Every structure is written in C-alpha cells, then in structure tokens.
Amino acid sequence: MSPRSAGRSAILPMTHTGPVRSSSAERVLDVAENLVAQRGFNAVSYADIAAQLGVSKPALHYHFAGKGDLGSALITRYASRFGAALTALDAAGTAPQTRLEGYAALYLAVLEEDRMCLCGMLAAEYRTLPTPMQDAVRDFFAANEAWLCTVLRDGRADGTLQFHGSPPDTAAMIIGCLEGAMLVARPFHDTARFKAAADNLLAGLTAA
Amino acid sequence: MSPRSAGRSAILPMTHTGPVRSSSAERVLDVAENLVAQRGFNAVSYADIAAQLGVSKPALHYHFAGKGDLGSALITRYASRFGAALTALDAAGTAPQTRLEGYAALYLAVLEEDRMCLCGMLAAEYRTLPTPMQDAVRDFFAANEAWLCTVLRDGRADGTLQFHGSPPDTAAMIIGCLEGAMLVARPFHDTARFKAAADNLLAGLTAA
DNA sequence: GTCTATACAGCGATAGAC
DNA sequence: GTCTATCGCTGTATAGAC
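Above: the input entities. Below: the structure tokens describing the complete assembly.
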C-alpha cells in the first residue's frame, strides 16, 4: 500500500472502494476536510490548505470560488460518503443491533484519526456559517435520524432492541450521545472514554 | 425588575443571588460569554465585545491583556458558577433521580437562551485554544463527571437508578448525551429535540 | 479606566501573466 | 490550472493622551 493510498484511506474510510480518481478539487477537499474536522471551519484558512497541498491560494479559488462554496462541497461529499456507509450497513438481513454497532463504529473511526465529526464541528459553529452550509448540516443530521429510526423500528419489531420513547426521540438521543461523546473525548485525548459511552448507550438499547 | 437585571439573569441563571457587584471586568465577561457560547471563541473579536458594551477595544485590553486571558477567565467563572449549581442540587437529602433531572435542566436553560454550553463550544475548538484554556475545559468536564459519579453511586445504592456500566462510564455517557443533544438541537432551532433526548436518557436510567 | 491613533499580521478575494 | 502580486478589510495588540 502506497503512502498516498494509506493517507487517503485514513481520511476517507467510509467509501474507499478501490481505484480513486483524485482530481485536484478532490485533493483540496481531502486536505480541507481533515483540517476543518480538527480545528473548525473558522480556524482554517486558504493559506493553511494551500500550504499543505504545496500550491498557492489562488489555485484553491479556481476550484471553489469562495470559502462558503468550499464548505458546502465539504458537507455534500461528507454526507454522501456517510450515507453510503449507512446503506452498506443495511446489506442483506443484518440484525438491527449489528447495524447500531456499525453506526457507532463509524464515529469511533473518525475519533481515532483525532478528528471531530465534520458536521458535529460545523454544528458548533452553526451561527457563523453561510446559509447553504447551515442547511446542509441540518440535512445531514435529519438523514442520520431517519436512518436510525428505521433501525429502531426494526429492532423493536423483532424484539432485539428496547427503548422507552418514540423512535425519533430515541434516534435524537443516539446521535446526540455519539456526537457529544466525541466532543468531550477529544480534550482528554482518550478514545476509551468514547468507547465507554458508546458501549453504555448500546447496552441500554439491547433487549435483555 | 429592571432591564439590566433581566438581562443578567438571562445570562447568569445559575448563581443569580440578588444584589450583584457588576464591575467593568464582570460586564466584559458577561458580554463575551454570551457571544462565545453562541458563535465560538474564534468567531468573536474584541471589536464585537467592545461594540456591544459601547466602549473601545483598548478598554478590554486593560482588563484582560490578551484574548487567551479573557478566555481563561471566561471558563473559570463559568465553571465556578456551574459548580455552585451542582452543589445546590445536592442540598438536603435530594433524591438521586431529582439531582439528575436538575442536571439536565441546567443544560436546557442554556439552550433555551439559544446558547451552547460554553465548554461544549470550546471543546469543539479545543485544538485551536491556548494551553491554559485547554486545561480549564478539561477540568470542567472532569468535575462534572465526578459529580455525576456520586449521584450515580447514590442512586444505585438506594435502588432508584439502574445502569449497565460503571459509574464513570455512565457519567461520560450522560455528559456526552446532553452536550451532543444541545449541539445537534441548535441547527434545528428546536428545544423539544433536546428535551426528547434528555427525557429518553433519564428514562433509561430510572429503575422500573 | 477609558480614549484616539496606529502598528502589523492575517484574512478572503481578484487581476493578469503563463 | 497554477502562478506572482496585490487589494481592502479585519484581527490582536500597543503607545500615549486624558
């Protein structure tokens, strides 16, 4: 495995499906996504991205006219990659509990790269984002919640999952718990802290 | 109730104990805390704070030499206020479940002012903060976790609370769930979303 | 304790050559 | 598609008067 493909899979673990066309724009997004997920959208500059790529700032403007355009593209790509990962978890007749574990594992994978969930980060900065980015962040969470609802309903139907509230309310709790556990784990540089919270969450949802 | 005291109680609900000495430095912190909790530390400038106070930028530098000093003071004051609120919840022989509900209510009060938890916001920006601020953020969460552990142990001892993991692991899940539910609720401008997640969380911890 | 004035670095963005 | 050069603005911070 070449250094580059190792680097890519570290950044894009959810859809790494073999031979990847890595256009200049894609490489910009790769670097930007990594920086934004670590430091936040407002703390990342064109200069930062250009420096890591070894190009000049105007080269970035050629691909993304304004910073807001770059940000929107970032979310779009992240959301579609995340969505593909969720679809993959639905394959065959995977048990609801297994799908839930897979969902938590997606978050853990991000945290282990010392990154925050891109949309969790952007949710914190929400009030300072351009409107298109705000809408895209909201859509991301809505899609996650919808997917979780189907898993929860399946699990309640076949008796493998148990929970007190409605599926949407429980889905909101699951997303919140995982995003928040990531958020709090990072200051402690402690992935075990996240795992403990996630395991605890799943244990509470598993039928005895 | 004067407009000013109304404003103060909206910003400082946790320790509003009557006649308040409102030195210039305190007023700077009031405005800064509100702005940072809404927009993030990196998205708030001396100019923003000075404008809301109706003073000049150098006036702020007189009270807080650098932005890092202001940020550290912000966390210190927030943490001590939060700590006092937790101590208040321990009064008399309050039931563990009631203390837990009170804890969640503290978060809800912040969200209803359309703010993020100050330290939750700073956790997102963690990688970009000066070291003293990073340490203070970590201490805040550690203190919260310690307090929750005592509540959880009390509740397990008297049989009013039930949970699968250890008290520290469960405490990490509770903090994560509440911080994350706030984080995700803000893009939806929807406090009901937070309440649902919090109620769901507490229901899972309450002994049947 | 607050002001005016200013220094200086960094930001996003554009013009125009290649 | 990428470069050099540069613009206008905003950021934190300081000097010195009052």
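Note for the figure: Chain A has ten helices and no strands.
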